[in-house]
Amino acid sequence: MGFSFELQQLCSHTQARAGAFHTPHGVVETPRFMPVGTLATVKGITPQQLKEAGAQMILANTYHLHLQPGEKIVRGAGGLHRFMGWNYPILTDSGGFQVFSLSQLRQISEMGVIFRSPRDGSIIELTPEHSIQIQNALGADVIMAFDECPPAYATREEVEVATGRTYRWLERCVAAHQRPQEQALFGIVQGGVYPDLRTAAAKALTALDLPGYAIGGVSVGEIPELIDATIRLTAPLLPIEKPRYLMGVGTYREMIRAIAAGVDLFDCVIPTRLGRHGTALVRGERINIKNAQYKEDFRPLDESCPCYTCQHFSRAYLNHLVRSREMLGYILLSLHNITELICFTQKIRAAILGDRFYTEFADWLEPKAVLP
After folding, report:
1. Is the whole-model pTM more than 0.85?
2. pLDDT for residue 120
């Protein structure tokens, strides 16, 4: 039981680092991409396939699981790990991002958020205490503090209010947390694109000496240059001996530049969302497999990819499946896309351990490079 972060190697030219995050359900080797399993399932992918793809930690969504099937049922099943058949590390978010995206259905106060359920119209109140109570019942290894995530178009005054409230809510989350030996509570640094707010927030949160920290409120509509600047500023402000998690990011460019700034963990719905729309990720590029050019392309998506899809099927077959709207096509694309992003972070980790990160990935770190 318990949590620790082992720092294994630092890059000699950047802030990139390789480490091992020890949890009650296993070790997460960092840097690492984490697939998203919103409703206790990574869409279309079995737990065995996830493990074979290299997944070590996956996410589930507090808000959605509270609505369906409810934390009482998950707890009755023995917790998320048993409920979904994944006996490895799991992270649950607080539900805050989903609630705050319901701009027409919610009201924010210092107490928390009151919103109307999009499922049945019932009124639900989600407070920091309630979010932690739900996550304690779900039983994930890492749970996230309830925070207010302002949109990219928010004014400085609105961001300042949200950042202050996020800290006060974090204090309440810490007080409400009933399973600290089994579940690591991560705080979330907010502050928008304002360096002074980010710096102050990071200082306040790290003073609480939490098991880990996340960078939130990026990739919510800002231009890439501002995202880069915010991450480069914030990551080094977080404790070197604790894991650092960048929320909602999962493209090659975003991950590699964040890793260079010292980030360890990433999550994003991109691989399965693209897969469900007939799009494959191939070495960072997106290809629409439904296009006519792939009808007689008998190569795999990527000759170097170890995934089940690339080892057994051609682009022509995937083109046929997607054009026929066969479920298998979307599953195979999602499986490949997940493997693609995990393998990418594995390659970066190997380069950091060998102190080759800066030389091997220099093109991605060039500020003016035109990359996806």
Report:
1. yes
2. 79
